[in-house]
């Protein structure tokens, strides 16, 4: 396919020389050089400083390349979008979500979406680590909890409740705390950081200085859930992760009369702030939003 002058210039900048760009594009070095020269003539300004070792951009070239990259990306996305409007969805969507939410809620929805659009490719990263969407080239992320300030565009899909719970095995050995202040004498399974009882959504009782007891700290909700089911402590877990355990008796609520029903979190779909969102990504976002609200 014939490359535009802009695409050829970007290849030279990215690969450092006419010859390197030519190898990638399948052109001869002289053809690449001629196309860049014609572009400079048309703009009436030099874009590249040529040396025997490497090409570098002039000030005008730097400005042109920065703007041109965005224009080219938007044009490519627009062409893909128009093509998708007329036919089966194609292309790649890169997305990420946390492990527990991904396994229980997101993966089934993604599977359903792919079955409807068999020519679509989805790259899904399931990780409890916060991913740099812009730096690592992801289209969307699905995250749960309470979001901190972010430069990403966020859309809250649904809210969920958190439940303070323990297994019957734990209660048999350690008993049930009768007041939030008693949690300091219990094994507490905590997410990441040491917390006070007020951080666990407990609103009643004299808990201003009370802290949670020692136990396990982990960055994985699924690991904390597993430890809780195994009888290793009390945990404050999202309802979507423990609803089956609560229904089947594998876990039981603790300190329910002190729990604030509004102290939970939300499920959010996040994406980089871009001027153009491909049609395939828009459709996946709506599919996920509808499915997550129903569960």
UniProtKB/TrEMBL annotation:
Ranges of residues in domain HTH lysR-type: 1-58
Pfam family, one: HTH_1
Top-rank taxon: Bacteria
Xref: Gene3D superfamilies: 3.40.190.290, Winged helix-like DNA-binding domain superfamily/Winged helix DNA-binding domain
InterPro entries per record: LysR-type_TF_proteobact-type, LysR_HTH_N, LysR_subst-bd, WH-like_DNA-bd_sf, WH_DNA-bd_sf
Keywords: DNA-binding, Transcription, Transcription regulation
Matching PROSITE patterns: HTH_LYSR
One annotated GO molecular function: DNA binding
Membrane-traversing stretches: none
CDD domains per UniProt: PBP2_CrgA_like
Sequence similarity: Belongs to the LysR transcriptional regulatory family.
PANTHER family reported in the protein's UniProt record: HTH-TYPE TRANSCRIPTIONAL ACTIVATOR TTDR-RELATED, HTH-TYPE TRANSCRIPTIONAL REGULATOR
Protein name as catalogued: HTH-type transcriptional regulator DmlR
């Amino acid at each position: 396919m014939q490359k535009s002058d802009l695409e050829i210039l970007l290849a030279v900048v990215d690969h450092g020389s006419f010859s390197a760009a030519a190898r990638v594009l399948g052109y001869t070095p002289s053809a690449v050089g001629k196309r860049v020269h014609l572009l400079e003539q048309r703009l009436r300004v030099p874009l590249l400083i040529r040396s025997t070792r490497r090409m570098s951009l002039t000030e005008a070239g730097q400005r042109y390349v920065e703007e041109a990259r965005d224009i080219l990306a938007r044009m490519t996305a627009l062409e893909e979008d128009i093509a998708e409007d007329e036919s089966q969805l194609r292309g790649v969507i890169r997305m990420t979500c946390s492990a527990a939410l991904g396994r229980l809620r997101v993966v089934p929805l993604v599977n359903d979406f792919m079955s409807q659009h068999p020519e679509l490719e989805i790259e899904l990263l399931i990780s409890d680590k916060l991913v740099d969407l812009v730096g690592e080239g992801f289209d969307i992320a699905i995250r749960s909890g309470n979001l901190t300030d972010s430069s990403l565009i966020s859309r809250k899909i649904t809210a969920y409740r958190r439940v303070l719970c323990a297994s019957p095995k734990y209660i048999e050995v350690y008993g049930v705390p009768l007041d939030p202040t008693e949690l300091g004498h219990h094994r507490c399974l905590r997410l990441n950081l040491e917390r006070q009882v007020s951080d666990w959504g407990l609103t009643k009782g004299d808990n201003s200085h009370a802290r949670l007891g020692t136990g396990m700290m982990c960055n994985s909700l699924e690991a904390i859930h597993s430890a809780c089911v195994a009888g290793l402590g009390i945990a404050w877990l999202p309802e979507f992760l423990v609803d089956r355990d609560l229904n089947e008796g594998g876990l039981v609520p603790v300190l329910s009369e002190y729990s604030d029903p509004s102290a939970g979190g939300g499920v959010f779909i996040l994406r980089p702030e871009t001027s153009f969102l491909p049609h395939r990504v828009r459709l996946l976002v709506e599919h996920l939003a509808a499915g997550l609200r129903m569960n």
